């Protein structure tokens, strides 16, 4: 098990791991491995698009020095549970709109106290702005047609100057009629108009054929 250039992430061959902050407990049936008395959780890139992005060559500083984060589209908590491992002292606000998905997310937060779930609509950040305040990191994984606009509104409302973010753009959720390259280009233009700097663009093939990760700075 070797350290990677990303804070809190370890590697064994092509497999990524995080230190399990709740030893003995799996979140989504992932493999647990103990090395030198420390339990690690396998971070599956086919289940987590952020793990896929790291394997595709994300920037070294992407996960560094985060004290607070806003995660849009928490679902059942697969990726956010690994961020809970990576940032044990950070506060991670997790927005999820679906009551069905929110229930297991809430159960996860009872074991991982740095997660703060919010049952809310990511399209309306003004409704949770007072709770979240200003964050260092913004992560979005929502399947909406206006994904880039949602990211922009949340960045405007909650992302601190100099903060970083990742938009996991689900291309087919925007439209079925336009080429993928045109959809990604339009999303980049939306981000840039807001004053965000797009640092990288990474298709997540073969882990996900529908997603392109856009990493940004405010």
Overview of the molecule:
With 218 residues, the chain is an alpha/beta fold. The chain has a single domain, classed as Rossmann fold (3-Layer(aba) Sandwich), CATH 3.40.50.150. Helices cover 29% and strands 32% of the residues. The chain has seven helices and twelve strands. It has a seven-stranded mixed β-sheet with strand order 8-7-6-9-10-12-11, sandwiched between helices. Strands 1-2-3-5-4 form a five-stranded antiparallel β-sheet, covered by helices on one side. α5 packs parallel to α7.
List keywords for this structure.
single chain, 218 residues, Rossmann fold, seven-stranded mixed β-sheet, five-stranded antiparallel β-sheet, 12 strands, globular
**Largest sheet descriptor:** 7 strands, mixed
- Strand residue content: 25-35%
What is the CATH C level class, in words? Answer: Alpha Beta
Structural class by SSE content: alpha/beta
The geometry reads as: globular
Q: Which regions are unreliable across 5 or more consecutive residues at pLDDT < 50?
A: none
CATH topology annotation: Rossmann fold
CATH superfamily: Vaccinia Virus protein VP39
End-to-end C-alpha gap: 34 Å
**Overall number of domains:** 1
What's the architecture, going by CATH?
3-Layer(aba) Sandwich
Biggest β-sheet: strands ordered side by side in the sheet: 8-7-6-9-10-12-11
Mean pLDDT: 93
Compute the gyration radius: what is it?
Answer: 16 Å
Strand tally: 12
The string of secondary-structure elements, in order, is EEEEEHEHEHEHEHEHHEE
- Count of discrete alpha- or pi-helical segments spanning 4 or more residues: 7
Task: Work out the helicity level.
Answer: 25-40%
């Amino acid at each position: 098990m070797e350290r990677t250039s990303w804070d809190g992430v370890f590697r064994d061959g092509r497999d990524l791991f995080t230190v399990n902050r709740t030893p003995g407990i799996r979140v989504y049936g992932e493999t647990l491995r103990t090395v030198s008395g420390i339990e690690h959780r396998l971070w599956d890139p086919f289940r987590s698009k952020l793990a896929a992005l790291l394997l595709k060559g994300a920037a070294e500083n992407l996960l560094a020095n985060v004290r607070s984060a806003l995660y849009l589209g928490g679902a059942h908590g697969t990726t956010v549970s690994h961020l809970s491992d990576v940032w044990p002292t950070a506060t991670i606000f997790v927005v999820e709109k679906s009551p069905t998905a929110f229930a297991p997310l809430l159960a996860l937060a009872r074991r991982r106290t740095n997660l703060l779930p919010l049952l809310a609509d990511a399209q309306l950040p003004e409704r949770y702005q007072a709770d979240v305040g200003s964050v260092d990191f913004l992560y979005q994984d929502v399947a909406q047609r206006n994904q880039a606009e949602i990211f922009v509104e949340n960045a405007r409302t909650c992302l601190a100057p100099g903060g970083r973010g990742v938009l996991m753009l689900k291309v087919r959720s925007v439209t079925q009629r336009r080429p993928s390259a045109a959809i990604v280009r339009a999303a980049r233009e939306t981000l840039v108009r807001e004053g965000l700097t797009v640092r990288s663009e990474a298709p997540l093939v073969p882990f996900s054929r529908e997603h392109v990760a856009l990493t940004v700075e405010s």
